[in-house]
């Protein structure tokens, strides 16, 4: 017997939750699906049949821009830290996106933890939707995930003809589910799709050997050095910080930045330790496949395929991995 | 058609006329295409040309301005080359242009080919390359047509509607600067968007800064945008940037009777003036 | 609107004519609204469209560019370039949601203190009529 919630019940449950929580869910408009904040009256706008959102859900924890604190000049200067006032539910995550959040967690929550990130993370419950029709560019199973992987979620919903199968994995999830109108039903869970496998195993060991290979310059020929791949990626987390000064007020703002942008490593005086297009380009793959794993234990990729889909010139991480594996040293 | 391109590329590389040919090869989805740099004559069989070849390759020439380079170019891309030649960014003697007669390409995303043409092709009246050394296909003679119905539609909106329309689009900009990086006309050594002192566009990815970025980016391309539509095509959040660019194109045509990228020798309108200009202002 | 709104105008005045014109207005004791914030530029041709866009972003209700009359430019041709740029920029900003009445180009010579005060008074009046700009 499995516990199932019908689509109508699910929506009315969300509507009810929206009174207390901020609900962040996929909404399609202007031809793009993005995670947006939806109020209780807008629950019907949620797109339940999306394949993958254009931007990853990292935006919720690590927004494109956020004010870290404000300094106001009264009699004495005061620092006002930013804070999150409401608990939130991030609804409609794909398992790969949940893994992306888990990967960013490793960096942001490692000691010393990022308090802004932590606060948002603690106050958010993740509700996932299993992937039943994966996109052609996905390869989550190759990097240790899966279309119905519930490891990094609080609740996972799996769509069937009779409603959504509910599975709670954490205390947070179980508690939230107690309020959901569910029925006990005998249901055969749907067959999960199989995805193309690329063998990413052992890639970390191979990467150091090809560091000086001309390969990187050749692929970088094509790269236009926009920041799209980093900005759509669920686990890229570089940022830049700057103070905004206005009359009687200073704000410290943190915004996304990408290793592919022209000024990323340029130092005062104009020296750039990554002077060539190839060196610039290489950094992204070395961070993902070589520098990240030994510190945090996993390849920094969820296999969501967003960078593959959004790259204007088809720089494909799957191709890079196989190319590196084929390269003779 | 593909054979002609391959043979020419092979000849160019074998005779060392150029040391690289920039063209298209199949993408990893085996459906769409992507840019490729061919350095070896043995590699020319990678080259293809079909309806999915959307990219404007003329951008790549800027990095190779001192090296002899061959390039496969559609008519709109050749306008990009002309623009760069006109602005003295390239050396003609270093270029070998394999022009391709084009009857329009498809709307393409990775893994997806739509059955319709992108905006640029719907309004295009230039099906023969404007500059080339070798032409693939039969040249077509046609009178230029100008259709700006999409722009007029927005112009006819009320100011409030228009403001809402643009803020809806610009608000979701993530300032990946893809529009700049892909643009053949954007080659500043330091873009105003990257300048730190003075800070024109702050690092904050928020409506105000996004508005400045999108407005000034477009205006820097006024009378220069060659309407290749790459910025719109690659925008990860689907901002209709051609609606911005084409407004400037329309006004430039109306005020100065000028179209960029058609002629390499003409002086662009913002590099010159006429005392007797009648522009409806400040006379 | 019940509460009267004091618009903020950013004025880019050319050093050789319009700034001197504004100066003359002052020394001749001609009053003009204090709504304008003057920025002196070497020539009206120095006004990068970016300055205008930035002014609007930072909350200006109106932007005025003032320079020498055509033919009088200290650098011979600066104001002709300004005229071309302005002719394209104004409808463009209007298209992107900034009412074209908020953006003006005026020719004010060094002897036209009176004209300067009239321009500012008229511009302020117009901006008061269209009300504050929502950002």
Short recap of the structure:
The complex is a heterotrimer of chains A (329), B (283) and C (135). Chain B is 33% helix and 11% strand. Chain B has helices at residues 2-14, 58-61, 75-86, 119-122, 149-155, 159-171, 178-182, 207-220, 230-234, 241-256; strands at 20-26, 33-38, 69-73, 95-100, 108-109, 112-113, 134-136.
Task: Name a few traits of the molecule.
heterotrimer; A: 329 residues; alpha+beta; 2 domains; four-stranded antiparallel sheet; 12 strands; 30% helix; globular; C: 135 residues; alpha/beta; four-stranded parallel sheet; 4 helices
Describe the model.
The complex is a heterotrimer of chains A (329), B (283) and C (135). By secondary structure, chain A is of the alpha+beta class. Chain A has two domains: 164 residues, no CATH class; 104 residues, no CATH class. In chain A, strands 3-2-6-7-8-9-1-10 form an eight-stranded mixed beta sheet. A four-stranded antiparallel beta sheet of chain A has the order 5-4-12-11, with no helix packed on it. In chain A, helix 7 crosses helix 9. Chain A starts with a strand and ends with a helix. The model of chain A has no long low-confidence stretch (mean pLDDT 88). Chain B has 283 residues and is an alpha/beta fold. Chain B has ten helices and seven strands. In chain B, the strands form two sheets. Chain B has a five-stranded mixed beta sheet with strand order 2-1-3-4-7. In chain B, strands 5-6 form a two-stranded antiparallel ribbon. Chain B is globular. The model of chain B has no long low-confidence stretch (mean pLDDT 90). Chain C is α/β, with parallel strands linked by helices and 135 residues long. The model of chain C has no long low-confidence stretch (mean pLDDT 92). The two termini of chain C are 18 Å apart. Chain C has one domain. In chain C, strands 2-1-3-4 form a four-stranded parallel beta sheet, with helices on both faces. Chain C contains four helices and four strands. In chain C, helix 3 links the parallel strand 3 and strand 4. At the A-B interface, helix 7, helix 8, strand 11, strand 12 and helix 10 of A face strand 2, helix 7 and helix 9 of B.
